[in-house]
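Supplementary Note 3. Input sequence used for the single-chain structure prediction.
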Amino acid sequence: MTVNVFFDVDGTLHSGDIFENYIRKLARRSYLRTILCLPVLGIAFASHKISPDRRLSLSVLIWFLTFGLSRSSLERFDDDFINQFCASNCLHTKPWRELERHYREGAHLFLVSGSPENLVRRIYPNLSSDDRVTLVGSNLKRFMGGLCLSIRCVCSEKVRQVESRTGKKTYFLAGYSDNRNDKPILDLCEIKYRVDRAGEIEDWSDERK
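The predicted structure, written as discrete structure tokens, is reproduced below.
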């Protein structure tokens, strides 16, 4: 019987956060747009910090930063962002060794991220094309001239999105994450591991009971 293993992505497989870096780069793309939208962006950012699982506040932020940009402009922006992110954020060696070990032992890997799934797939193309890897993430869609989030894959939504892919309640032999907000999905893991900022792994089971 195939066992499942869960890996968070940002802060677990690599340093840095894909979505956070994406938003920062969007803001730097046009300082004038950012300044003009500052009151709305400030409210949206504050709301996101208070409740990071809320989709609406982050959607407002993304929409204002992308409104009026053509598809081709966004595609060029994404290309530039992915190249920059891959060059500036290092992989965490020990979590990757664990991922490779579980894969060699026959596990099915679930990579579940709060970052947009299309960006994660392009950053990790080899994983996203493997039949024994299920990659799940947030979803950006076009809405009235800008981008917004149709799915914000964080907290309990990670569990719901995994179940929507598998069609059933899914349990895991082990789970690896850097974030306490992953508690809903880590509660489905028999063994839980915390990955710190330096990429070190420690047992998280007792701390989360």
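The longest strand covers residues 133-143. The two ends are 27 Å apart (CA to CA).
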